[in-house]
Amino acid sequence: MGDNTSYVLASQKRNRSDDFDGADAKKLMVQGEADPAAALASARHEFGEHGGVNMSIEASATFTVMEPETMRRMFAGELGPDRDFFIYSRHFNPTVLNLSRLMAALEGTEAAYCTASGMSAIAAVLLQLCSHGGHVVASRTLYGGTHALLSHFLPRTCQISTSFVEVTDLEMVDAAIVEGKTKVLYFESVSNPTLTVANIPELCHVAHRKGVTVVVDNTFAPMVLSPARLGADVVVHSISKFISGGADIIAGAVCGRAELVNAMMDLQQGAIMLLGPTMNAKVAFELSERIPHLGLRMKEHSERALEFARRLKNVGLRVIYPGLEDHPQHQLLKSIHNKEYGYGGLICVDMETEERANRFMSHLQNHGQFGFMAVSLGYYETLMSCSGSSTSSELTSEEKHLAGISPGLVRMSIGYIGTFEQKWSQLHKALATLHDCAYKS
């Protein structure tokens, strides 16, 4: 098969007694394609045990060897998953490794490995990169769970401190980095929930000048943005969201250099290996079947979000969406995004107070059948939540104010079920009912 030896059918099994000399090749997969969809199409396709077009699920917790010496060599690090040697599924699992190759292709990194949740991916990366007493500089606008990890858990357990900054203020970011002490600059490509777009290339330039590793959470913008191609060292995901698309799976991923991913799987020092946020092989299989149509889904999410944002703005609501020209980072996003996939599937409507936000969401769900009041995002139905009292509730009132999170900020993950005009009719009906109720009161 020439240069495409990585595409060898999985049914062509090697003899488990084969003896390979030399150390493992450390790179799990290298992708050079600039477009996420092209990279996914170029990724290794794993076939089923009996020639099926879909891979077989390797559900085993442990793996056999033909010779005792082989096991010794695996534990010594001489034989590994790149040559089809597996030890135990808390370490590498073939099905999870296949999903990880797809994630590496998606994000344009050398390697990736998948975990049981997005938070476990974030925590494992930070613990791998920061030692006791370390320092992180992070955006002050983050998912509430990540903010709590950085502001409460890591200081208590590891004395890892975090300076929270306005990520759009490059001078503030630069001033917060303590050369020689700061290990990580952490931010979201598109912030949760305010939809602030990070200037990834410039932030990477600031951090790298001082020897700091850049970790970017790209959960809100898969396909839309490619942080690693813009300079980021590590990309993390909650796969539970857009990548899964079904609101039925909890999963995460770490994408980065092969050296980092292998270090995180190291038997003695690896954060993923030793903390054990193991992804189930059956979950990995399901997710591998969904990634090929992620691009199609993201296009539809983005197209509908843009049109809903325009129409909601036209009826007088205060709408926040990076695809609108009045968004502060619209031109920035326009210059760095993967244009085919639009500006993302999330919009925010600021109703100013929590009471008005709750009334707004209640009418959209219960009178217009437009969407559901639920946290999370990336589902085929529209999901709505008042961020300040839900997914950002871990932040104090002062922290929410600094992060720009209004008490009435409604985050909407725009779905794609039904026709667009059908969904707009439902939304418009709910708005009319809301207006009538407000008028009568």
TrEMBL record:
Its cofactor is pyridoxal 5'-phosphate. One of its GO terms (molecular function) is carbon-sulfur lyase activity. Coiled coil: none annotated. GO terms for cellular component: cytoplasm. The keyword Electron transport does not apply. InterPro entries: Cys/Met-Metab_PyrdxlP-dep_enz (IPR000277), PyrdxlP-dep_Trfase (IPR015424), PyrdxlP-dep_Trfase_major (IPR015421), PyrdxlP-dep_Trfase_small (IPR015422). GO terms for biological process: transsulfuration. Keywords: Pyridoxal phosphate. The modification N6-(pyridoxal phosphate)lysine is found at residue 241. Signal peptide: none annotated. Belongs to the trans-sulfuration enzymes family. This is Methionine gamma-lyase.
